[in-house]
Each structure stands twice: as structure tokens, then as C-alpha cells.
Specification:
The chain is an alpha+beta fold. The chain contains 3 helices and 8 strands; from the N terminus they run βαβββαβαβββ. It has helices at about 15-30, 90-105, 120-125, and strands at about 1-10, 45-55, 55-65, 75-80, 110-115, 125-130, 135, 140-145. Strands 1, 2, 3, 4, 5, 6, 7 and 8 form an 8-stranded mixed beta sheet that branches. α2 (about 90-105) links the parallel β4 (about 75-80) and β5. The longest helix is centred in the first third of the chain and has 18 residues, at about 15-30. It is globular.
Length: about 150
Amino acid sequence: MINWTVKKFEELSVHELYAILRLRSEIFVVEQNCVFQDMDNKDQFSYHLMCWENNALTAYTRLIPPGKVYDLASIGRVVTSQAARGSGIGKQLMEKSIEEAEKLFGKLPIKIGAQLYLREFYNSFGFKQSSDIYDEDGIDHIEMIRQ
């Protein structure tokens, strides 16, 4: 059974926060072999969209209000567990993230910093490339905006 929840940072339980940080570390640090500071002091002003399946966190995004990182609202730290891949959860995660961002911040444009290899995936949700390619922690990225 899949359960979606959105919480402000201060509403997260210690168990939820631990699951979020663990999943982000498993994928962004270990799987992608990228040494970087994941805890960047942006979690505190963000909303956290979590997908729980059988009490395990399988997908997650961080929803950031406009004016905090970009002038626009933002979706970041988009991650799915290895076990959930191929199930369509990534697509559901982005659809739910856009829906929740619009509920929280209004139907405003959304800006993301995306890994370059995922450009077509994000294009399918209406995001368009808005920057040149740049290096972030050894991985090619682009900024994208959904109007």
C-alpha cells in the first residue's frame, strides 16, 4: 500500500527524517559515487514529500518555496529507492510533486536543477532547459523551468 505525505521540516518525526537522509545518502552519495554535503541548510524551510510503501520510504522530493533558492518555487532532491525503480514511482513522484508545489505555492512556474541525463524525463512534465550545462559535484546539470 502506497501512502503519500507532505510535511514541513519541524513536523517530521525523527524516524521520517532519518529515512529521508538515509535514502538521499544511499542514492546521491553511495550509488552515484558523489562525495558532497547533502545536508545544506535548505531542508529547514522546505516541505518534504514522502512516498511510503509497506513502512519503507521509496520516493522523496524536497519542495522549496519561491525566493529561498531561486526566485521561483523549486523541486529538489528527487530520489527513488533502487527497489522501487521500474515500477513507475518516479513518474508518480514528479506528478505528485508538481501537484503539491502548486497547492503550497500557487500555480507558479517551478524551477529545478536537474542532472543532464534526466532532461527528457523532466521534459515529459513540461520542464524546459533554461541554462547551459554546469558541473555540480562532478555531475553535469542543467536548470529547467516549468511554466
